[in-house]
UniProtKB/TrEMBL annotation, chains A, B:
Keyword Ribonucleoprotein: no
Gene for this chain: surE
Protein name: 5'-nucleotidase SurE
Function: Nucleotidase that shows phosphatase activity on nucleoside 5'-monophosphates.
Domain spans labelled Survival protein SurE-like phosphatase/nucleotidase: 10-192
Cofactor(s) the protein requires to work: a divalent metal cation
HAMAP family (UniProt xref): SurE
UniProt-recorded Gene Ontology molecular function terms: 5'-nucleotidase activity; metal ion binding; nucleotide binding
Phylogenetic classification of the source organism: Bacteria, Pseudomonadati, Bacteroidota
Protein family according to the UniProt entry: Belongs to the SurE nucleotidase family.
GO CC annotation terms, alphabetical: cytoplasm
Binding site for a divalent metal cation: D15, D16, S46, N102
Species name: Candidatus [Bacteroides] periocalifornicus
PANTHER family assigned to the protein according to its UniProt record, in alphabetical order: 5'-NUCLEOTIDASE SURE, PHOSPHATASE, PUTATIVE (AFU_ORTHOLOGUE AFUA_4G01070)-RELATED
TM helices/strands, residue ranges: none
KW Metal-binding (keyword) present: yes
Length: 259, 259
């Protein structure tokens, strides 16, 4: 697979799967900045977090399509896609990893469950500038056109400036017309009433994951949740180091048994 | 299901599945501190991160066993177990969530992929003090006896002192005799050479996830990786807010298009 080396290579992936509209909208937009390779899950993997395929091997194949970039599908998770792309599929080291555009919000605590952000954080762990893009709208056919210039601007800025080691960007796009871009923190929140309990025809109980999102800091204007509710694009710089440093210090005086 | 209300209720889960030795060793040890309810995946779910079951419903059933606590298996991920336990299975709000003892390290960047820590962070998101325990030894029959007094001490300290909102503990147990307990930061690291490529009998390529762990800060004595290599138990206070605050500030001068 030959890639024109005068342009940066951009790896594009997602969690909604190789056929998703958002994936190809993003891949096509990225052609403005570089050569694009798409490596995405064969099937949708929403809510997959940074899960790995451990107990079975993974496979990939090139998909034929009338696209101005090559595309490969992987029989695994979004994180598997990034790992296998970097190990085997993409012949050079990409300059940028982008994931999305996800059909649904990955703002606030949803970052923890997001396959889109799983893939993004995987690019970050591999030492590559990485950005996840998600739209606060689950409709698979939502019009993405108005958002694409912003996605290109954000990706261009990251290509030009880089990102610190261990930091990726979680970008969420508001449902309504964009009022601007805001750098935000991850809103503290909780889901409640999380299951819809039903009975099968034989009287067995089963439970569908659902739930109501509740922001725990709804008035603060520096959160991604606030920005999106006010029609801003939210960008949260998101770190792979999950250490709570203040608590490390606070725990110094906890006493432990001697060995 | 009646629970003696004079003792705290402790929810015990894992990612290795309801039959794992480490799960029942931890559950039995926790009886010293409170009433125990086990809610664990029906099957093993290593590397599941904080993944959710979204596209199919989940079910649970009580498992019969000669144990001094009730145990339930769930047809989903470790995170599903915590969600369904809190929503439906456990009749009161637990005082503590513990996950493990995982058979394998969840130190350093492995926290990102860990189903054990996915369940732990889920307890934390739900506002409960939560601790994940993992042993740097993948042998399913490893002798856990020497570690259990430490697990009880750590759980007791958390029951007594609580944890700040949004902070859980990632506890890893060293392979050799314990020299003590250290409060640590998550070691920066990378996996490389991550796939073992093979061919099936029909000439098709497939890829097993494997890899070599490389610490990126091997000499620093404040990381979990260092502590474990020197036979200390590592405790990393781990936060669900993944925002990189310094980068938020640094991005203030990035310029964006006006709407």
């Amino acid at each position: 697979m030959a890639i024109n080396s005068s342009r940066p290579t951009i790896l594009v992936t997602n969690d909604d799967g190789i056929e998703a509209h958002g994936l190809h909208a993003l891949a096509t937009a990225m052609l403005e900045l570089g050569d694009v390779v798409v490596v995405a899950p064969r099937e949708g993997h929403s809510g997959m977090s940074q899960a790995l395929t451990v107990r079975v091997p993974v496979r990939y194949r090139e998909e034929k399509g009338d696209t101005p970039y090559r595309q490969y599908s992987v029989s695994g998770t979004p994180t598997d896609c990034v790992k296998l792309a970097l190990h085997t599929i993409v012949p050079c080291r990409p300059a940028l990893v982008v994931a999305g555009i996800n059909h649904g919000s990955n703002a606030s605590i949803n970052v923890l469950y997001s396959g889109t952000m799983g893939a993004t954080l995987e690019g970050c762990v591999a030492g590559l500038p990485s950005i996840g893009f998600s739209l606060v709208n689950r409709e698979p056919g939502a019009d993405l056109t108005p958002y694409l210039p912003y996605c290109v601007d954000i990706a261009r800025a990251v290509l030009e400036r880089g990102l610190p080691d261990g930091v990726a960007l979680n970008v969420n796009l508001p449902r309504r017309a964009v009022q601007g871009v805001k750098i935000c923190r991850q809103a503290p929140a909780r889901w409640h009433s999380e299951y819809d309990a039903r009975q099968d025809p034989w009287g067995g109980d089963y439970y569908w994951l659902t739930g109501i999102f509740e922001s725990l800091d709804g008035e603060a204007e520096d959160t991604d949740d606030w920005a999106l509710r006010h029609s801003y694009i939210s960008i949260v710089p998101t770190r792979v180091d999950m250490t709570d440093y203040p608590m490390m210090k606070a725990m110094e005086d906890w006493k432990w048994r001697k060995h």
